[in-house]
Amino acid sequence: MRVVQGRSGGLGEAQRADPVAGGPALLDAGTERLVHMFLFGSSAKTRMVTPEDALPGRSSRPFVVPSAHAVLGTPLEGPYPEGFEKLYVGLGCFWGAEKRFWRVPGVYTTAVGYQGGITPNPTYEEVCTGRTGHAENVLVVYDPAKVSTYDLLKVFWENHDPTQGYRQGNDVGTQYRSALYWTTDEQAEIAQRTRDAYEKELVGRGFDPITTEVGPAAGLPFYFAEDYHQQYLYKVPHGYDCHAETGIALPPL
After folding, report:
1. Is residue 33 part of a domain?
2. For the segment 113-144, what is each residue's pLDDT rounded down to a tens digit?
3. Which of 6, 15, 189, 234 has its CA 20 to 30 A from that of 95?
């Protein structure tokens, strides 16, 4: 069995060489946790990399991304229907984060990728070093006539702990930071209003202030992740899913 790098700074995914197909096959959830604890538990990166120390990356993607969503059957990279909107969210490990959004009625497609950092066209292994600056993010494409931005942000805020800085539960490192990147003025307004409302609620319950990066997606390319990361918890139903929820609801605006 050839084990290769999985989740960084926490418990997570490991792979073995598939003797038939020659490609990666996923270990069961219990084994992936134990392997990663042993191999990678002390490798967390909790300081943001500087441009001088960032990995150089490359000019084009070094792997193939599937054309269609494994659950929804819709295009991962587009084209998307006219009038649909895009939102980018980071709430820790992107495996479980993506599943929470593809289940929302009105969501057209989702994909996982790397965003908010420095290194162009990174690989997962590079992101796990902490030297790309990217967060594990989810692209959410949705029909605003069927689901509101507020409802999507309710899923976002309530399904992780946005006060933890460079970690989510067992997963420690800059790639697991909370992030929210908007693409429209309406999204920007609701993002800020929900952030303020949720922070007030959290601080009143004894939590630290929110550390979520909130800003425009413009200028922050979204680099699609490798095939085996896309819709991971559909392919591995009992796979790793770490989200340190606060248990506190987002108040209505």
Report:
1. no
2. 999 999 999 999 999 999 999 999 999 999 99
3. 189
Domain membership flag for residue 21: no
Q: Check: CB of residue 137 under 8 Å from CB of residue 98.
A: no
* CB neighbours of residue 191 within 10 Å: 23
Residue 133: exposed, middle, or buried by beta-carbon count in 10 A (0-12, 13-18, 19+)?
Answer: buried
Based on the number of CB atoms within 10 Å of its own CB, is 253 exposed (0-12), middle (13-18) or buried (19 or more)? exposed
d(CA 21, CA 61): 22
Tokens 């096959």 -> residue: 25
Q: Which residues are catalytic?
A: 93
Asked if residues 58 and 121 have their Cβ atoms less than 8 Å apart, the reply is yes
As for how many domains the chain has, the answer is 1
Q: What is the DSSP letter of 198?
A: H
Phi, psi (rounded to 5 degrees) for 151: -65, -35
Which amino acid is residue 42, in one-letter code?
S
Contact criterion met (CB below 8 Å) for 161 and 204: no
The first and second tokens of residue 61, run together, are 């993607």
pTM of the predicted model, to two decimals? 0.85
Q: Are 216 and 179 in contact (CB under 8 A)?
A: no
**Which amino acid would we find at residue 215?**
G
| Other Cβ atoms within 10 Å of 177 Cβ, number | 24
